[in-house]
Every structure is written in C-alpha cells, then in structure tokens.
Amino acid sequence: xxxxxxxxxxxxxxxxxxxxxxxxxxxxxxxxxxxxxxxxxxxxxxxxxxxxxxxxxxxxxxxxxxxxxxxxxxxxxxxxxxxxxxxxxxxxxxxxxxxxxxxxxxxxxxxxxxxxxxxxxxxxxxxxxxxxxxxxxxxxxxxxxxxxxxxxxxxxxxxxxxxxxxxxxxxxxxxxxxxxxxxxxxxxxxxxxxxxxxxxxxxxxxxxxxxxxxxxxxxxxxxxxxxxxxxxxxxxxxxxxxxxxxxxxxxxxxxxxxxxxxxxxxxxxxxxxxxxxxxxxxxxxxxxxxxxxxxxxxxxxxxxxxxxxxxxxxxxxxxxxxxxxxxxxxxxxxxxxxxxxxxxxxxxxxxxxxxxxxxxxxxxxxxxxxxxxxxxxxxxxxxxxxxxxxxxxxxxxxxxxxxxxxxxxxxxxxxxxxxxxxxxxxxxxxxxxxxxxxxxxxxxxxxxxxxxxxxxxxxxxxxxxxxxxxxxxxxxxxxxxxxxxxxxxxxxxxxxxxxxxxxxxxxxxxxxxxxxxxxxxxxxxxxxxxxxxxxxxxxxxxxxxxxxxxxxxxxxxxxxxxxxxxxxxxxxxxxxxxxxxxxxxxxxxxxxxxxxxxxxxxxxxxxxxxxxxxxxxxxxxxxxxxxxxxxxxxxxxxxxxxxxxxxxxxxxxxxxxxxxxxxxxxxxxxxxxxxxxxxxxxxxxxxxxxxxxxxxxxxxxxxxxxxxxxxxxxxxxxxxxxxxxxxxxxxxxxxxxxxxxxxxxxxxxxxxxxxxxxxxxxxxxxxxxxxxxxxxxxxxxxxxxxxxxxxxxxxxxxxxxxxxxxxxxxxxxxxxxxxxxxxxxxxxxxxxxxxxxxxxxxxxxxxxxxxxxxxxxxxxxxxxxxxxxxxxxxxxxxxxxxxxxxxxxxxxxxxxxxxxxxxxxxxxxxxxxxxxxxxxxxxxxxxxxxxxxxxxxxxxxxxxxx
Amino acid sequence: xxxxxxxxxxxxxxxxxxxxxxxxxxxxxxxxxxxxxxxxxxxxxxxxxxxxxxxxxxxxxxxxxxxxxxxxxxxxxxxxxxxxxxxxxxxxxxxxxxxxxxxxxxxxxxxxxxxxxxxxxxxxxxxxxxxxxxxxxxxxxxxxxxxxxxxxxxxxxxxxxxxxxxxxxxxxxxxxxxxxxxxxxxxxxxxxxxxxxxxxxxxxxxxxxxxxxxxxxxxxxxxxxxxxxxxxxxxxxxxxxxxxxxxxxxxxxxxxxxxxxxxxxxxxxxxxxxxxxxxxxxxxxxxxxxxxxxxxxxxxxxxxxxxxxxxxxxxxxxxxxxxxxxxxxxxxxxxxxxxxxxxxxxxxxxxxxxxxxxxxxxxxxxxxxxxxxxxxxxxxxxxxxxxxxxxxxxxxxxxxxxxxxxxxxxxxxxxxxxxxxxxxxxxxxxxxxxxxxxxxxxxxxxxxxxxxxxxx
Lengths: 946, 456
Known about the structure:
The structure holds two protein chains of two kinds. By secondary structure, chain A is α/β, with parallel strands linked by helices. Chain A contains 27 helices and 37 strands. In chain A, the strands form eleven sheets. In chain A, strands 5-4-16-15-14-6-7 form a seven-stranded mixed β-sheet, with helices on both faces. In chain A, strands 19-23-20-22-21-24 form a six-stranded mixed barrel. In chain A, strand 2 and strand 3 form a beta hairpin. In chain A, helix 4 packs parallel to helix 15, helix 8 crosses helix 9 and helix 8 packs parallel to helix 10. By secondary structure, chain B is mainly α. Chain B is built from 16 helices and no strands. Chain B is globular, with a radius of gyration of 23 Å. Chain B starts with 5 loop residues before the first helix and ends with a helix. Classes of the chains: A alpha/beta, B mainly alpha.
C-alpha cells in the first residue's frame, strides 16, 4: 500500500504575507457566499428541508439510539437490516428478523457498511475528465447528448449497470427503454453465477430455481458454495444450521470441491477433486439415477464418496438436493438440475421477472464498443474497468465511446476512464427499494443526509427517460402509490418503512415443466492448470476494497489479511519447486497475471484459486495496490474457471499479504482443543483431578451470571461476528505493517483447526472471544487492579486504570487480550485515514482506547447495562434474550448464545448440560464462562476416513 | 587464615597471596588515592566521550519511546514482553553481585573480597538504577508508574497486592535504597582519607561527604558494628530481590514459567552474571588505575571458582526444569520443552547452553583460571548466555503457548537493540565518573587485610 497522504498543512514559516492576505480574502469571500440556504433544486435532495435543532425532534433523546429498518445491497440484491443511529449518526448495522435474507442476522459486508459510509475517500464531486466540475455543467452536457440520442431513438446509447433488483429502478429502466427504443441495457455482475441458461437447457424455459436447503436431508454440493460470501449466505447458513439442529443424524452434507470453501468446511464428508473429476462424478451420479449416459471412470476415493452419497440420495430422494457450482461446465450444471428434478427434491421454481426489459451481457457491450456502435456509455454503480473479464479488455474499449458517464460511490477505475463522473449516495443515505434474492422487497430509507452532494441511479436515469426532475423520495413514493393506489397508502408506506420489508411482494413458486436430460459428453481434459475464481470473503468483488475493517478481516482458512494471492496446492508447489511467497506468472491465452503464491490446504492438484476484488488501483487510500486482480484472467464465456493456464516463476517477491494465524493440524492430545464427534455421541465428562485447592463455587445471591455458549457445529466461519464486534466496540484497524509485526486488535478471533491431513482437511471453526474465566489468570497478575471481576461474573478491564504492564496478556492462556501498542484508534492512518469524519462511526457507548492500554472482549457490557437500565426502570429482572451481544446478533446460524447462567432455564444453562458441551483448556481450572459445543461430523458408514 | 577461606581457595595447595607486596599502609593509600588526585588521562577522556555519546543515544531512545509508545519495539500481541523485561532481569542480576560480595563474603569472612568490594558495590548501584528504569520504560503508560505504589489516592485505589509486579516494585526500591546506604557507609572513612589529601573545592566536597569522620577508636567501633549489621541485613535482601524477579514468571499459569525452582535459580543466575561483570571490571580497574598489587591473581582465581560453581548449579537447574516438564506429564509443558530445542529459537537456546554451561567448564583448569583472555572470554560468554536465558524464558513461553493460533515470533527492531546496548554505555559512563570521584578500593579494609596478612 502506498503511504496514506494527509492533507497538507500550511506551516507558518512557509506562509508569505501575500499568501496570507490571499487566504484571508478567499476566506472572507467564502464566508459571504457559504451561508446560503440548501439547494432546493438539487435532484439529490433526498430529504425535505434541513433545519438545525431549534426544537428537538419528537422521539429523539440525546444518548438514546434510534433504530431504522432499511436494506443494503450486495451484488444488486437487498438484505434487510436495522441500523442504529445516535443523534442522526448511523453507527451499527443489525439484521432485520422480518426480512427473509437476514432473519435477524447479517453477513460480514453489512456489518462494515457504516465504515464505508464515512469513508473520506468516497467520491465527493462531479468530475469532468477527472477535473472537479458541477451538476449544471454535467446536466447541460448530458442533456445536449441525450437530445442527439432523442433523434436517433437511443441508437448508440448504452447503459451498463450491475444487477438491478430495485422494482422502481427497473420500472424506470422500462420507461427509458420505451422512450428510447434503440437504447441497449447491459448488466454485468462480477459475482453472478450462470443459473438461467442451465434451466433453459433442462426445462426449455428460463426459470429461477431456488433450493430449500432447510428441507434437505442429504445435500451434495459439487464445487458450489452456498455458504460462501454472497447475498444468499445468511439465509443459506440459517437454513443449513436449522436443518442440523432439527435432527443431526439425518442431516448429511457432502461436498466435492476443487478448493476448500466454507461449505466444504461445514460438510460432513468432503472430497478434494479436480473440476474434471467432479464433472465425471456428476455424470456418474446421473447415470446411477437412471440417466442414459455412459458412466465415466472414477478414482477409488471419488467412487467411494459418490457411492455413499448416492445411497443417501436414494434413501430419501424427496429430501435430497444436488448443487452444482458455476465453475463447472454448463452441461454439468444442467445435469445437476436434471438430477434434482429426478429426485423431486426441495427446489422451488420461480418465473423470471418479465416486467424488466431484457438486458444484454458485458461481452455484447464489448463487441458493440469494438464495432464502434457505441457513442454514449452510461455506467451506473458498476466498475467494469477493474472487474470485467480480462479477455474483453474493457478498460481500453471504453474509450471507443466518445461520451462516457460513470456514476458510483468512488472515483474508481471506470470513473477515471470516463469523461464524466458523478458520485452516488451510499445506501445509508438514499431512498430506494430493493428485492432480496427470493423476491422480498424492502424500502431503502436514509439514516443520514448525504455527506457529500451525490446523485442516485434513479436521479441519473430520470432525465434520460424524460421523467420530471423530482427527489428520490418523491419518485419512490410515486412509484409505490402507482402499485398500491392512493387508498390507505400512507399506512402501508409507514408499515413498510417500519417493518423493513414490503408485504405480499414475495413471488409464488410456479410448477416446472418436465425436465429433459441434457446432452452430456466426457469433457476433454485440458492441459495445464485450471484457475478457479471465487468472491473474496473480505472485499467481495472489490466494492469493499477501501474498507479497512474488511481488509483486516482474516480469510477463513489462511487467515491472511490485506490482500489475496495465487493459491496453490502444496504438491504442485513441491513439483514445480515453488515456495510460499514466490512470485509466479499465470498465462492463459493472451492474459497474464503475476502475483505471490500462497499454499492452500484442500486445493486439488492442478488447480489454482484466486479470489476476486483485489489489484485495485483507484479503490482509495486503503485499497489501492493490494493484492492482484483476478479479473484479468477471467474469460467472459466461462467467468468462474480458466482452463489450460501455464505457470512459471518470475523474479520479485515480498508482496505476499500477511496472515494473522493459519489452519492448524491437531496432533494427538491436542484434538481436545476442538473436538469432533459422531452424531449423538457425548464428550467424556472431565475427570475430577486431585487438588488441594477446592474450587470456590459461584457465590449465590446475584441474579445474573453472564455466560456464552458457542456451537462449533453451527459455525460456518463467515466472520460476521468478527466485524460486528469491531463495529460495536470501536475496535480500530491497524494496517498490514502492524499485522506483519503480529499485532492485531480483533477482540473476537476465529481459530480454525484441521482434523484431517493437508490433502483432505476437516476444518473446525472455533470463535474465541474472552472466556471471562471465573478464576481469571489475568486478574491476580495486574499490579494496579485494572483487570477485575464484577459481581455478575464479567472479567472487566478498567482502561483508565491500566498502566500497560501487559502481564495480563502474558498470563492469559487463551491470548484474547489486545494491546494498543500505538494510538491505533486515533492518529493512525488505518484507523481514521487522518480524517475526523471517520470518528463518526464510533459507538458512543464504548470508550475509545488510548495508546498503551490493554483491551479485550467485554461481553458487550454496554448492552448489558442498557438492558439493566431498562429492567430497573420497570423493576424487574433482565429477561432471557434481552441482552444480545454484537457477535451473537450478527451470527447467521445462531451459533453464539448469550445469557444468564444463574437462570437454570436460560439457553446457556441448558446448553451446559448438552452432551457436546466442552470447556477450552479445562485442565487449567480457569472455569471460563464462555464454553463450546463440539463439532459433529455425520460422516456415515465408511466416511470416517474422508 | 581460617578454614572459611578454603571455600574460596578451594585447595590445600599454596595459594597465591591476596596482595602483592611490598606494600604498607601508606603505599595502599597512595595507590588508591592517586587516580583521584591527578588529572584524567587521554584514555579516560576518550572512553568518557564514547560513553557520553551512548548516553545521549539512550536518552534520545527514551524520548522516542515516550513520545511514540512501546510499539517501536518488536513486541506483539502474543509476545507482549521483550527486551525490556529481559534487560531488566539481566541488569538486576548484575546488580546482585556487588552487595553479595560485600555481605555474604563479609559474613563468611572471605578476606580477599576487600579489594574488589567497593567497585562491585558501585556496579550494583549503577546496574540496579538502570534495571529499575526498565519496568517503567516498558509500561504502556509510563507516566502512571507510581500507581504501583500505595499512595493516598483520592479514588482510594491501592495496588493489587497479589501481583508479582507489586512485590517487584518493593524489592527493587528497597534493594536500591539499601545498596546506596550500604555503599555510602562503606566509603565513608575513605572519603575522609581523600579529604585529607585533596585541596581546594574538592576538599570541601569530600569533607561534606565524609560527614566529619575523624577515625577515632569510637568511630571505628560503631562503624564496624554498623557494617556487619548491614551486611547481615543485606544477605536476605540480595536473595529476595532476584527471587521476586523470579516470581514475576513463576507466579503465573504459563508453561515454562510456572516452576517453583525459579526463585533460587534466578538468585544463582544473578550471582553468576554479576561475578562475570566483576571479573571484567577488575581487569579494567587493575590495569587502568594501576592497582595490580591490590587486585591480584588470587582474586581472579576465587571469582573464577564462584563462576564455575554457579555454572554447575545452573546446569542442574536447567536439567531439573527439563526433568520436571517430562515427569509432570503435562502436554503443554512437554510441548514447550520440545519447542525450546526445535522451535523458532533453538539456535539461541543452544547458544545459551553453550555460554552458560559448557564454556565455563574451562575454569576447572588452574591454567585457564589464571589466563586473563580466557576469563574475559568466559565472562562475556556468561553475560551473553544469561541475557539469552532471560529473553528465551520470555520468548519461548509467549511464542508457543496453549492455543496455536496465537503462536507468534518476536522480531527485534532497531529500538530493541538501542535499549539493549545503550544502557551499557550509560553504565560505563557512570562507572567512569565513579572512578574519578570515589576511591575504587576500600583503603581501610585493604590496610586491615594487609596487617592481618602481615601478621600471619
């Protein structure tokens, strides 16, 4: 990363008299002009008139947070959230229990959106050819251009967007298409799968197929990652975890994959296989189920795996599902649909949304650009210059259009290649609406006025279609009034805003026609490496590249932060004499990408994996220059896999991003650190040890004894809890250099242990917050009583009292304490980018820690206090479920439970008697309040080896 | 000589004389006072300038540390302690030897200690002063170091008495105060001697320092009684200070630290490194100030034997650590033992064993004990080895503990090295000044020894 540049300060000795007078005059002039009313004609005027607090708004009490329901987009789809705001300042994102894509939880990206909101690197001005301009200049230039296109009915005018799931925006698009019939609309979503064509191949019509994972006993995934990052992650995680909780012994997840994914880690039985071998396995499975195709040869391991899977499938075919990932061939995906159809498993079919105009692909747009058919290109909320498949050479092609407009949150690579750029508002600043992947629509409402002037996609499309110039708010209400009618509109509108989800908008499943068996031939194996791509768990497709929380959020297995790498199997590396960190170059057809190698477990030999979203050059000061851009190697025809790649070592090194930990094998006795059980099995109770020191029981009397229980069988390793904790507790980012020195600040980390060997990993995720030991080793060693125990069993850290001896962390067997070696929260680039604005993201209920102070997980003591205040006001005790810690609230699978151990009926008390219950490092007699439930591996007969 | 001296000389063979004649009272006094009364030579000035540069560098380092924070060091989230703590234990260890020589050897009537006791005590003073700085420098918020002391704070908070760091605070403070008193009492009659021989302003300074000492029989009677009482008091203090430093580690939960052997083993280790420094200072002082008649082969022989004995005790301590780890059967302890020999720092561990256990075995041979280069080499080896021992106690345990995800290696920064070497210059700077203002050998003790040796 290049050094973060602070704004220049004028030093007294550099200031001449003349310069000082100039500044004075300029300041006086700006004072005279700056005190005008807000610009009411602005199209970005999302809200009504702004007023200072002369009278306090009704319902707003200083210090009492407000909560608003809204929705945040990811890959175009919405996830319902409830955002906490203090005095009009959004600070925390929680899930919306009413929203089907959230169910009360969030993913890691939603948690980090508040930091993106306050990102000072967001685009703050309209730019013409890179120079700051203004809206009137843009509007007149754009209008003149549109008038030209009005004559030719939009010929030569192209609009490129990401996936659009906003009903109102789609309506606007349809209007635009009607106004300019020759305009062409293209959609490019870098993380989009390829569901549509496979359905067409099998059913003859375009259908949207959505599996109901919660109803599947047997789930077989072939290089698919339903638990991986994406708009469905939260719902899928919840569905799979719920299915497991219902009856663990009958729930079995098989995963055959070329690279270790979160789904593979969650699986009961997993096999690492080359994509070619996986395609053969799908064909063999289809043949097993009666397809008239030649049964391909399988290796013994794959054969055994498939036999077991087929046995389970056949036992309950109506409760079995097969998922085939986008990196496999279209015929294999079609075959997967055929298998599901044959099984009659829990899959819903939906008719595609026919209200929206048909959109072309980015490849078609590239062709048109190449052919000179495009005179005007409008790119909305998309960054094709950085994310388009490398075979298109899109960044260069863009210049063929003479008028290029880009609207986006950042002045990114595409903005730099455009003639005009307009900033768009952050989703937390906008009025809009958006649908979730399953079609549930939410209204998007702003939590804060736009920090900088910005124009939404609605506002940019409106003048193109000749719509009246009105605010997004009015436009949105008009659109919904059109759908609902004026009768009872206000009540419905209010209810939709409060609920965060619009009633009756989820589409009904349709019946699907008879499936036909697709043609399947044995694919010819390509020589060389197969490069597979995946959305990055931290920056997704690159849109979160400038978010320091996400950059510092460790990758699930490698625990690498601040960058990606070329992931490679150790056997391949050994064969080619390549070591971790070596710089290599991948050549696929004409496309070349060089980067550092990271050795990965569970990666099939002959396969390389690179996550998307890195190698950004104009992401902002946080994200620039990190990692390598995998999009360069992608091909538009098969965006998720590039076959036949050659690899060679090149000179250069030192670019490998740092890792905070790794995936640890557990030899021998160490296995009890993260035990693994068969379904229904129980852990042996801890043997009583002879001791002169009889442990003192918890003193009775206090009504609360806080405790946490973490179910490692439900943890999918998605990191949502890690960033939720960071957001709730003002945990600063420290940057790659500090991480390289071994200094991270996360209060909650996710350890990952491997019960298998390197080739067949069986990972177990173990989130580790503070254990809040009853006999805490950190307490007696602190010389100043900064680490003390409170009467409710919390091990608390008194920041004001801490002198920073660090003895507590030395003596902590769990190593959960974090030290401020520098002033990370303040005066450090990665913490605040040198901009006071970023401080607005802090939770006012949590101290910002100073340099030289130890800190750690508090069980979100501020939330306990808030619940206690409420309960005491009502003279009652805090009820079960009233205190929800940040990590617990974010967890998609409800793996984290928190509650009162003094209440024998509370969830945590009940879970203490679970046969899977265990205590980390039990033998030290620290008596932690945070305990675990063991991972279950339902491997089935003969599966224990896999 | 009594049988007690056999402890030091160790054999019935004819031993070398403690003092090299011909000497009388006046000659002793002249020898010791001469460096104080003549202007400093070129060598002294060169050494002093070099040390001043080192002192300024150290002060600059402290400024940087206080303004930027302890993050300038290589410490990390797992290895939260580093050079500062190792340096602290090392300097405290060195500081142990001076008072030990003057107390334990007084009580056991080792007369040979007379010539070296003064500068060894001065060494203690300087080393403990430097050591006492490190716990403060090491704090995240050093400006609040006084919170470790029980003072009447308005919030009525007191130190947390169960913490070994609070014990440490008292151990260092009391040891430092006691060492100053002990040293001053020892030097009092000699200040009077110098007062009587100096002139001008210095005469007044020494006069003040001598507190009106006239050398009367009553003075001497009280003086002897005070000295022996202080020596008796000093002995438990010497043992306690490093025992408590050992408890900093032993009163914990971590494998490699939670060992009951730590307090005695730390005391022996302290004596070990302290004697190594005394050997080197003896060589420098006897050559530099022309005191070869007073600091003789007999002294080096005796000190070499102390070091040899200590190395054997250290070896036994290490062996008992290893045995306990194996015999205890605890997974974490055993794993740590394997890590010490095979982990990230194994080369340093082997170097430590070589310096502390193997190399000093040379001193079994009288020839080696008589060789100055060998003694210097062995002493430097011991100092390096003892520093490595302390840093490895910290690194091994903190780099490799219960949960593998937090296993991290320590990489020192340039500031770590500055804080390792800088204080050595500060020590030398103080010692050079000491040589110019105070008699480096207790003249009255040596004169007494001379009379006793002459009487024999």
